[in-house]
């Protein structure tokens, strides 16, 4: 029997997963290995009868440029008891598995690390290499190297947002668009800036003040009134879902949403439409101010996760996949594959990314102090400034309160 490798995919989908899986399969098949694809993420490793498929060249060649994940994914996260008592080591032994490849985010990587330590303690000779992915672009990879899937998701998100903006211009509507990004605003900022939305709201902007629903709504009103002063009756507000996830419990209660709760007692924020919530709050505020504005909510998220990868991700994911073979040959294990801007492959260890105190991987945030953000904020976004106060009084009794800088408690340079 040939030596084999096992590939599994965990977490949520991102464009390029099939590119990674297909390219890894092609590379290892070419070098004489059997390639096993495991369905159900980590669930398969703790099942007496794992659901798996043998990946041959024709399958790999058929899927490598497709969106979604041919291998079924899951967010299953085994406990330490699962690992100690229910890990299917027999499956690895019977199939002569020499490498476990995991594709996922930081949770998938952390679990892979725990499994690698478990196997090492039992002297089972298997390597483990992780391929990091997320459309949120919030893994702190060195030198601002993006996570795979981000550019494809941003590209499709920009296509949707451009169509929405055209509808706004055609119908004289303001669309409130919420984009995925639980911890950081990369996706919302990238889409909003690409499509020239007059207001983008991301959690990083609230570095000097608490995030509240009122401040988010006031930023939207600021943009609407600024454009009205300019003689423009339409527009779009791009909001990162991260601002919602950063609201305090008291602020969440103010939204009036009745949440369902998970097994740990946490509100299931993923089951509610952030765009609808903020749009309703905006409509209430506009009515209070006596401003007649037609608004509509739009959600961008699940429709970009399984999008066909763009050329950048096809090349990038292929590099990462071939990098898995390179690291495997070098005997690396318990690491993530990393391709720098020059295409050179490096092993990246969790300890190099984790916070030394908490052990968690801190998210990479949008750098709101860099020139790219500054240029977008000052040249593309539209919001009330002190120069607008006098004319804005036609629409607002207190325009100073809708000053972009004052809302965010920023100091003008």
List low-pLDDT spans: none
What does the average pLDDT come to? 91
| CATH class term of the largest domain | Alpha Beta
In CATH terms, the superfamily of the largest domain is Phosphofructokinase domain
- As laid out across the biggest beta sheet, the strand order is 3-2-1-4-5-10-11
Distance between the termini: 69 Å
Q: How many DSSP H or I helices?
A: 16
| Inertia-based shape | elongated
Portion of residues in beta strands equals: 5-15%
Largest sheet: 7 strands, mixed
From the helix content, strand content and strand pairing, which structural class follows?
Answer: alpha/beta
What integer value in Å does the Rg equal? 24 Å
CATH topology of the largest domain: Rossmann fold
Question: How does this structure look, described?
Answer:
The chain is of the alpha/beta class and 413 residues long. It has helices spanning 17-30, 57-63, 80-86, 89-94, 106-121, 150-171, 186-194, 213-229, 241-245, 249-254, 274-289, 302-305, 311-329, 371-379, 389-392, 404-408, and strands at residues 4-9, 34-38, 52-54, 97-104, 127-132, 174-179, 199-201, 235-240, 295-300, 335-339, 345-348. It folds into two domains: 4-148 and 309-348, 3-Layer(aba) Sandwich (Rossmann fold); 153-305 and 365-408, Phosphofructokinase domain (Rossmann fold, 3-Layer(aba) Sandwich). Helices cover 40% and strands 14% of the residues. The strands form two sheets. It has a seven-stranded mixed sheet, sandwiched between helices.
């Amino acid at each position: 029997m040939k030596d084999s490798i096992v590939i599994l995919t965990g977490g949520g989908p991102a464009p390029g997963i099939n590119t990674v899986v297909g390219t890894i399969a092609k590379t290892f098949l070419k070098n004489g290995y059997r390639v096993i694809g495991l369905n159900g993420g980590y669930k398969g490793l703790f099942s007496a009868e794992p659901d798996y498929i043998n990946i041959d060249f024709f399958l790999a060649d058929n899927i490598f440029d497709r969106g979604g994940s041919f291998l079924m994914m899951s967010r299953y996260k085994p406990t330490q008891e699962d690992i100690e008592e229910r890990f299917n080591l027999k499956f690895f032994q019977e199939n002569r598995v020499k490498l476990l490849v995991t594709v996922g985010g930081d949770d998938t990587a952390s679990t892979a690390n725990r499994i690698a330590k478990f196997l090492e303690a039992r002297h089972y000779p298997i390597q483990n290499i992780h391929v990091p992915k997320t459309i949120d672009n919030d893994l702190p990879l060195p030198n601002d190297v993006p996570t795979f899937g981000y550019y494809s998701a941003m590209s499709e998100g920009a296509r949707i947002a451009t169509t929405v903006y055209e509808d706004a211009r055609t119908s004289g509507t303001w669309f409130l668009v919420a984009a995925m990004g639980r911890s950081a605003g990369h996706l919302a900022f990238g889409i909003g800036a690409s499509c020239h939305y007059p207001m983008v709201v991301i959690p990083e902007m609230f570095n000097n003040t608490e995030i509240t629903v009122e401040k988010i709504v006031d930023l939207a009103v600021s943009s609407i009134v600024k454009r009205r002063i300019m003689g423009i009756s339409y527009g779009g507000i791009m909001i990162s879902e991260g601002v919602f996830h950063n609201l305090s419990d008291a602020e969440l209660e103010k939204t009036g949403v009745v949440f369902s709760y998970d097994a740990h007692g946490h509100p299931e924020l993923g089951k509610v439409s952030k765009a609808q919530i903020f749009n309703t709050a905006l409509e209430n505020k506009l009515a209070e101010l006596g401003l007649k504005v037609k608004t509509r909510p739009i959600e961008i998220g699940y429709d970009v996760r399984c999008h066909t990868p763009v050329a950048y991700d096809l090349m990038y994911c292929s590099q990462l996949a071939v990098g898995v073979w390179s690291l495997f040959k070098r005997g690396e294990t318990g690491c993530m594959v990393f391709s720098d801007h020059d295409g050179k492959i490096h092993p990246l260890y969790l300890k190099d990314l984790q916070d030394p105190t908490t052990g968690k991987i801190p998210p990479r945030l949008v750098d709101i102090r860099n020139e790219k953000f500054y240029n977008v904020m000052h040249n593309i976004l539209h919001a009330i400034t002190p120069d607008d106060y006098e004319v804005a009084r036609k629409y607002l009794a207190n325009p100073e309160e809708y000053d972009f800088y004052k809302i965010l408690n920023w100091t003008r340079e």
